[in-house]
Structures are given as C-alpha cells and as structure tokens.
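Slide 14.
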Amino acid sequence: MLVDDAPDARATFLFAHGAGAAMDNPWMNDFTALLVERGIRVVRFEFAYMAARRDGLRKAPPRAETLKDEFRDAVAHASTAPLFIGGKSMGGRVASLVADELHDVGTIAGLVCLGYPFHPPGKPEQLRTAHLLELRTPTLICQGTRDQFGTAQEVPGYRLSPAISLHWLDDGEHGFVPRKTISGRTKAQNLGEAADAVAEFIASQL
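Slide 15: predicted structure.
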C-alpha cells in the first residue's frame, strides 16, 4: 500500500488502479496529488496480479468479479473513517461490486469511479451495468465525454441507479485527456476539474 496523508484530512479515499497500470503509475500519482491538495487522505494498493509483475511475473488482469475479496481485504487495512472507495477504470468497477455490502454496514461513506468501463471498447452491446441498476451507495462517476468505454452519447441512455451522479469532463478520453486544438482544454484542467468534483462529492457525504 501507498499512503499519502493530507494535513487536516477530512476523509480517506481507498484508490485502486486500472487493469493495465500499477498503483504508482503517472496518472495515479498525479490524481493522488490533486486529492491530497484538496484535503483527502489517499491510500493506494495493488491487486495480486499487478504486484506479481514487480517480481517479473507477467499476468493478465483477471475478471473483475474475482477481485472482490482482494478489495475487501484492502478496505480492512485502510478503514480510517470516513472512508470512500473507488478507483480508475477496472479498480472503480471492482469497488462498485462490493460497495453496497460495505455501505450497508457503515464501513464506507461512498464510491468514486474515475473512467468507469461501462463496456469494452468497440463493444457497446457488452454492458457492465447490471449491478448499477440497484446500487444504493452514494456514487460519483467522473467520465470523459469521448471515453471509449462509455461516451457522453451512450451513457445517458443506460438505466442507472439514482444514487449515481455523473460528472462529464469535456472532450476527455479514458484518462480525461482532451484534444487541446479542438476543445481548447488541457489535461491538467480536466484532471483538476475531476479532483474538484471528487472533493465536492466527498464533502457532501460527510
């Protein structure tokens, strides 16, 4: 685990990585720093398949459903209240699979997904939203408007729980990066906007 403390932190965010990049990849590092600046303590961890890569064992990401116990274990080691869970892409999806059971017993206060993988790229018919229909946990999803895992044209047509709030990042792809020449925006602006949205969501649940 990596722990980034924030002075006078008002909450802890357990932050899981995406399918193909470790907990200390540049995107995770940058977003963690932005959250710490906003008074949020961030705890990062790695799923076993990713940790094995540090020992030279190249393992493909397993099915998200098989990682639920690992996420539960991470929660047990990071349970500083108030606690929010979530992650980038696959990490957020795994968190969403265990969120209700943890929220129902008061272990977590909310869920944050950054670039939710609503479907595999190029396969919009293979939706990963069944459990999101009845989700009870207060949830924020930050999504780039042109995210290939679920665009601003696709997602509003999905049936999602009223507990879920969506924050769209203009012209962002899966990592929230916009096309500056088209949108006039920068990656830094979109990341900062997403971090602001997360901080505001966390504050609203305290």
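Speaker note: Residues 2-204 form a domain with the Rossmann fold fold (CATH 3.40.50.1820).
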